[in-house]
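FW: tagging you since you asked about this chain on Friday. Here's the raw sequence from the shared folder, copied in full. Didn't touch anything.
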Amino acid sequence: MKKIYLIAVNLLFVTLCFGQTWEGKAELPNNEGRHHPVTFGIGDFGYATTGTSATSQVTKDLYKYDPATDSWTQLNDFAGEARSFAIGAPYNGKAYMGFGLSLTTFLNDLWEFDPATETWTQLASCPCAGRRHPALIIRDDRIFVGLGDGAAGNLNDWWSYDMNTDSWTQQPSLPGPVRHHPFMFTAGDHVYAGMGHGGNNIYKDWYEFDITTDTWTQMQDFPGEARVAGTQFDMGGYGFVLSGDGDDHSFMGEGEMWKYDPFNDDWEQLPSHPGISRWAPGSFTINNTVYFIGGQNRISQFINGDMWSFDIAPAASTPEIEVTENTFSAYPNPTANILNFTNSTKINSVKVFDISGKMVLQSNLIGSSNIDLSDLSKGLFILEITTTNNEIFNSKILKQ
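HL: got it, structure written out here
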């Protein structure tokens, strides 16, 4: 198994810090309260579609949010069946969604949304059982789907879809109990899933799926109250879970947000969203901001259509760490163009990922000890170094 380390640096070491306030934003138009929406951010815009409306109808309308004007625009409807309890995520400038429950059917379809043309393309359906409340995570041109509940009850099977071949492969099942409405995200080099609801239980167990070996590892349990039916997102190599029901499948006193660090397998609690927690909200990210939308108030049963934002901004500190023959340094950091490496002869490859997880640069450093970042936009990036011993080192770099 590959070993993963944090890069030791004697340069500026970038971490993430968090603002302390949530800000109210424009509500969905037409009083369109919604629970179980599929939400995703692509570029400078956010999107929300499907879910259950305030009048308890399954839907297929599609809305686009512009943060520059704090306004929503209704687009042409989603091209598939109206549904709720579906799942989706953005990847490489597009979005992918499917599954859920129509008026009568547990679905197993998959769709691609292109924001440039605002059109949908149907992809190969999963050969698995149709289901609602599944997990869906995207990494390295593969879509991982599993868990959820269908006509036969709760599930723990796991499947991967290859974007390049439009085909599905069954993977090893989650080693924990069957469940629906889990939390899931990509973080670091792998994808993660866990928590959720199965039978009479609300879970707090947590699992890593290694996408290089297609194997599961159980991680430390989530340290907070067991939970289900919230929302999640990833940013800067970290994963985040937000809101949902607690261990009695009812509201929590606060809409908790937690950050998961995959390098240390630990969690940090961040400021809660306003009010009590909500059942089945949505969220999307644009740049360094998360937008939290909809969900049901479990006291009043009111289905919300409001939206709140929270900035997650990069900050820096400058510890001095000695560089030895077994560590690697990348400098200067921040950098405007050239990023240099110590011990470059022991480096097999260097990859740079943006905060959405998209790889934006790759180099094997043959005949060189640096890479040129001048073509990248300003912002925070994740650096991944693979050594000649097949070890992986990760850190963050700031492009100025």
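FW: The two ends are 35 Å apart (CA to CA).
HL: agreed, and Confidence is low (pLDDT under 50) at residues 1-19, 314-326.
FW: great, closing this out.
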